[in-house]
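@channel sequence for tomorrow's demo:
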Amino acid sequence: QVRFPDFEVRVLISDSEVLIDVPILVQLSVPIGGGELVSSGLAAPVAWAMARTAELKPGDCVLDPMCGKAITLIESSLCWTKCHYLGLDIDSTQLKGASDNSRLLLEAAGRTS
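structure tokens (generated this afternoon):
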């Protein structure tokens, strides 16, 4: 697996279609997190792009009612640090992954809770 590619192209092939995806948004370097999560889920660049489209402002509250492993919330919190984040999910396995990922983020930031 290439961890820090210079350029990314994604190709999705189905029975009837071929989709070629070239990301045009650039994610700035984030000083914490290191780009590695304990429990993978949604691709981090996709999660960041989703958060970017929300045009978050300081003090905004982000509610993710199906947060899965919290990838979108974590990517958002790395770039928009002055917002509040809340994730919910019905699947306990997903919430375990979200908890593990959140703990890694807090440890990287030098906090414990």
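heads up for whoever presents: The helical segments are 44-53, 71-79, 92-108.
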